[in-house]
């Protein structure tokens, strides 16, 4: 199959992505992230060049201990501050109204074509630690069979935190994928998905969703390129990751990933270094079918039981400027306060507020995410040119999130 034929097939069956109301990121191209990152070795020493530039691909930077640092500086002890800095550095050109970009790949096996859509996010934020890390690769896989001379999508496999789940697709059925806020894990439907110690959740807005633009993965045979780079796509503070790097492991194995829950998640390896999902898509899909009948049943039970404690009553949130007379181009300070809502285990103990700026013509740019405890006031400086808009959601002590708080009319800031 020629590259043009592959791209046409990938574009035809690209999934429709649905994003949570508080999601600030869209999957995008890797060029800016790579071009503005430094490569660190196992001792955190900066190496010359960045992938795919030499010598990072073929030299000392192409080994499992290498890591990218997208901020050209040390790790920030405040995970929320680092996420906001990565957003400022790599998220300014995003189009929140779009579904971003997916890197596509076509693999034949088992008498079918497996279409892989690799989605890259510069950051995996986290409202409540642990879980935050630089860089994030997610995978959506569609099986396409040829029936009666026509290609037909017959199966959808989603890599939920690297663990596949597969569902059959009826003829002509839409390929809808729901992207969990911050973790960017993909699911078959909206709502919460229990993940210890946090829950994934996707509660989309009524805004239009879209299919990502598709670009073919660069798979040059003459020399290694970034899809097969052996290092990690960012920094994280997880002890499990540090131990895996010390042991020269490509990925952090399951026992060590549990250690990462202490302080951070795991910055991922390149798509070509992600094991079965890359080497054997057919086996990856079959494994997803098995998990659908086992592990996911436990998750569904936990989801059902979670309805007894999740925050049903949304908190009241107020965002107001501290000094409205300051110049429009200068960073402006805002006070954010929230009122308590709910009782007992349903009581909201933390409120997350995501900010965007809205410019002329309806263009929107993600700015930051901040948190505040109910009954307390927090003041933040946010630099913006257009109108500041926001959405919020409350979390209880069990780390369950309630439904997003819709912004005031026109998304305006309360005066």
Report on this model:
The protein has 415 residues and is of the alpha+beta class. The protein has helices at residues 3-12, 31-35, 79-90, 239-246, 254-260, 276-279, 281-292, 295-306, and strands spanning 16-19, 38-40, 46-47, 67-69, 101-109, 112-124, 133-147, 150-160, 163-168, 176-179, 186-187, 191-195, 198-202, 213-216, 317-321, 332-338, 350-358, 364-372, 377-382, 387-395. It has 2 domains: 3-302, no CATH class; 317-411, Immunoglobulin-like (Sandwich). Helices cover 17% and strands 32% of the residues. Strands 9-8-7-6-5-14 form a 6-stranded mixed sheet. Strands 1-10-11 form a 3-stranded mixed sheet, with no helix packed on it. β7 and β8 form a beta hairpin.
Task: Please outline the helices and strands.
Layout: H1 3-12, E1 16-19, H2 31-35, E2 38-40, E3 46-47, E4 67-69, H3 79-90, E5 101-109, E6 112-124, E7 133-147, E8 150-160, E9 163-168, E10 176-179, E11 186-187, E12 191-195, E13 198-202, E14 213-216, H4 239-246, H5 254-260, H6 276-279, H7 281-292, H8 295-306, E15 317-321, E16 332-338, E17 350-358, E18 364-372, E19 377-382, E20 387-395
Parallel strand pairs: 1-10, 5-14
Antiparallel strand pairs: 2-3, 2-4, 5-6, 6-7, 7-8, 8-9, 10-11, 12-13, 15-16, 16-19, 17-18, 17-20
Helix pairs in contact: 4-5
């Amino acid at each position: 199959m020629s590259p043009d034929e592959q791209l046409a097939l990938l574009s035809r069956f690209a999934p429709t992505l649905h994003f949570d109301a508080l999601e600030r990121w869209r999957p995008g191209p890797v060029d800016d992230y790579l071009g503005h990152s430094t490569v660190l070795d196992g001792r955190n020493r900066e190496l010359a060049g960045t992938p795919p530039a030499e010598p990072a691909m073929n030299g000392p930077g192409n080994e499992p201990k290498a890591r990218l640092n997208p901020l050209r500086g040390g790790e920030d002890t405040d995970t929320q501050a680092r996420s906001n800095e990565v957003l400022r550095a790599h998220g300014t050109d995003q189009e929140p109204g779009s579904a971003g970009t997916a890197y596509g790949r076509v693999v034949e096996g088992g008498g079918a074509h497996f279409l892989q859509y690799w989605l890259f996010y510069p950051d995996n934020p986290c409202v409540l630690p642990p879980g935050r890390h630089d860089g994030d690769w997610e995978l959506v896989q569609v099986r396409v069979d040829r029936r009666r001379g026509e290609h037909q999508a017959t199966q959808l496999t989603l890599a939920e935190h690297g663990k596949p789940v597969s569902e059959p697709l009826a003829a002509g059925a839409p390929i809808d994928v729901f992207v969990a806020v911050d973790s960017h894990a993909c699911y078959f439907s909206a709502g919460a998905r229990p993940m210890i110690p946090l829950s994934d959740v996707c509660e989309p807005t009524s805004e239009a969703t879209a299919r990502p633009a598709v670009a073919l993965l660069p798979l040059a045979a003459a020399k290694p390129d970034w899809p097969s780079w052996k290092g990690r796509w960012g920094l994280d503070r997880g002890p499990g990751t540090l131990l895996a790097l010390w042991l020269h492991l490509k990925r952090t194995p399951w026992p060590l990933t549990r250690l990462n829950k202490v302080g951070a998640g795991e910055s991922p390896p390149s798509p070509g270094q992600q094991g079965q999902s890359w080497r054997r898509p057919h086996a990856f899909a079959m494994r997803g079918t098995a998990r659908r009948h086992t592990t996911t049943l436990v998750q569904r039970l936990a989801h059902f039981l979670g309805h007894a404690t999740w925050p049903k009553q949304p908190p009241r949130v107020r965002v107001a400027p501290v000094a409205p007379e300051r110049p429009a181009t200068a960073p402006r300070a805002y006070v954010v306060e929230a009122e308590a809502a709910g009782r007992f285990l349903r009581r909201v103990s933390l409120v997350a507020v995501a900010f965007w700026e809205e410019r002329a013509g309806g263009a929107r740019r993600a700015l930051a995410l901040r948190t505040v405890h109910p009954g307390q006031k927090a003041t933040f400086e946010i630099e913006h040119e257009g109108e500041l808009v926001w959405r919020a959601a409350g979390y209880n002590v069990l780390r369950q999130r309630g439904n997003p708080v819709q912004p005031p009319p026109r998304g305006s800031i309360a005066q």
